[in-house]
């Protein structure tokens, strides 16, 4: 096991803390101020990180702007850019164990799961490496026979991309934005969450080693209300890709109107899970548990609203509750741990308040419901019944291992309950009837629907939300769209 100070030493600046990456150089913030990065499993400080302010954002955007204007990245062919992204993927895989340990310490997730996330982040770069030389326009013959006109389209990078990522999946979220933005030819300013900045800094170093030119990728660390807001409203930024809460997403929409930025927003979710009476419960019960408890429920697409047919209600509820009780909750670096802590004391207080509010409103805890210990930010996997759609526990995103369960007696009611939400990020339905599964999938208002599975697909399947769950898509070919413009060119050829 590597000590935290050794894990971060490779990109520490001579000032003794992790710096900002601006125009290819690791520098202290202009103010010289830092903020602590914590281990949520212990509450202890594991690093001091440069605290950027607006002047640092200005410097990072200016560096990205120069790099784009000078075509430091675009002067490479698509094939050459793809080779750089592929090298980055290889470097991530080669350093996967160390990245996973750093992610686990800074975020709390069990290290074995963190390693899976590192490999998925690497896969993002490998996938979009293949797209870098395949971004093409099309040709069109126009005009009447006596006046020949040739038309064609060009797909061009939008320019400078501000990439703002959350704390619940730091490295994957950064990769899901950086890889397609770089494949498209953009220059970037990456802002990791203040809670989890460390693997983003390491990723910046990896991209330098892979051959990304100076200024093409800049990393600024700090607080959302200062540097996140500065990026969202900055006139030198052409597009913003943000993953986080719907509330912050709204503020980014308003800030982006100043220069009509392109926006890609993956926002909150309150994802429904439907278990039909004919479901294979040997698969549905662990599937439901995994949908809500994985990563301690700190997943935008977590299945936190469960609707179960009355014929199997008791069996499903008891089965999911039993799995929750059997999960080993503990420090992410310890062997055999299934769930780590919540990210912070603030998040622990938030989850606790939602559970207590649900109980005050008439809900009943079947399992869990309480904090674990007094060191770190651990919370029990929790199942609550006797709930209804009016409760905050069933309407608002909790971002913790808390499942609210209701029963239904016909499929129309199940679909109505599932769609009764302002969100629409993900969902799943569990049934042995294939035709019914696909029929229900078409009627659920969500960007992703699983049939007998809640989440799958990785980089190959587009992800994004309906309604207040966001705009645009990440992953797949669709993931490139936020970083590209389409230009039409027409020319008269004569008769």
Model description:
This protein is an alpha/beta fold. It has 2 domains: 4-267 and 471-487, 3-Layer(aba) Sandwich (Aldehyde Dehydrogenase, Chain A, domain 1); 271-458, 3-Layer(aba) Sandwich (Aldehyde Dehydrogenase, Chain A, domain 2), CATH 3.40.309. It is 37% helix and 22% strand. The chain has 15 helices and 22 strands. The protein has helices at 4-7, 54-69, 78-94, 96-107, 111-129, 170-184, 198-210, 224-233, 246-256, 281-293, 313-326, 345-360, 392-395, 411-419, 434-443, and strands at residues 20-22, 25-27, 34-39, 44-50, 139-142, 148-157, 160-164, 187-191, 217-219, 239-243, 262-266, 271-275, 303-309, 364-367, 371-372, 378-379, 382-385, 402-408, 427-430, 449-451, 470-471, 484-494. The strands form 6 sheets. It has a 7-stranded mixed sheet with strand order 14-17-18-13-12-19-20, with helices on both faces. Strands 9-8-7-10-11-21 form a 6-stranded mixed sheet, with helices on both faces. It has a 3-stranded antiparallel sheet with strand order 5-6-22, with no helix packed on it. Helix 2 (54-69) packs parallel to helix 8 (224-233), helix 3 runs antiparallel to helix 5 (111-129) and helix 10 crosses helix 11. It is globular and about 75 Å long. It starts with a helix and ends with a strand. The mean pLDDT is 93.
